[in-house]
Amino acid sequence: MGGMLYKDFLAVKGKKILILVLAFTLLFIALRLALPGADMVQSGETGEEIRFADGNMIDAFLWTMPALFTVAGIGLPFVWIKGLVAQDEKNKIMAYTKSLPFGKNTYIASKYIFLAVAVYAAMSMELIWCEIYFSRSGDNSFTDIVKTLQSFLIIFSSASLFIAGIELPFFLTLGSKKATGVKSAILEILFLFVIGWLFFGNLDVFGNIDLFNFIEWTKTHEFELNMMIVFCPVIASALYFLSYKLTCAVCRNREADIDE
Amino acid sequence: MNNTQRKEETKKLLIYLGITFAISWAMFFSLIIPGNSFLDENGNLSGIGNLICTLGMLCPATGVIFTRYITKEGYLLTGEGSMMLGIDLKNRKYIFYIIAILLPWIYTELGNLLKIVIQPDCFDKEFFNTAVTDVRNAYMFPLMAIVSGVFFSIGGLGEELGWRGYMMPKLIKICGKGKAVVLGGVIWGIWHWPLTYVGHNFGTEYKGYPYTGFAAMCILCVFLGILLTLLTVKTGSVWPAAIMHAVNNASPSILQFFINPDKISGIMSDTFVSFIIHFIPMFIISLSVFVFWLIREKRGLSVKK
Question: Are A87 and A11 in contact (CB under 8 A)?
Answer without folding.
Answer: yes
